[in-house]
């Protein structure tokens, strides 16, 4: 009996003095990973939806900016009428005074035609010739998503009447007014 008691005491002493392994078990790690995956499957689609919504809001505001720049351009250069190129509404302020070719009315990023997942263009320009000079009397601004469904769902349009409409399919067939 004494021998058994002694062996038990030695065993207890060894267990007490040896460091125990610390860390997570495999099952604990799998549970944590499962919870993380479930949270990600809920969060990622919502984040993508919010990103698309932000891009669309930015596109609408950019179309408004271009239309306002067109009105200013028409006022500054009445002999030219409206601009038929985004580059003419842009321009670097460091390069000198504004001109009809670089009016410096919109920032360089928007004047390049790409911003926040959308491509912007000025199309459907109608011109008349007055005193041997071409003058643009109308235009249409379009904004289409670079990737329909990812960078945005709707395309946006506006013209010299400053009414913004949208195409629910993401193109330039804008028939529905923005609410």
Automatic annotation (TrEMBL):
The chain crosses the membrane at residues 23-44. Keywords: Membrane, Transmembrane, Transmembrane helix. InterPro entries: N_methyl_site, Pilin-like. This is Type IV pilus assembly protein PilA. It comes from Edaphobacter modestus. The lineage of its organism: Bacteria, Pseudomonadati, Acidobacteriota, Terriglobia, Terriglobales.
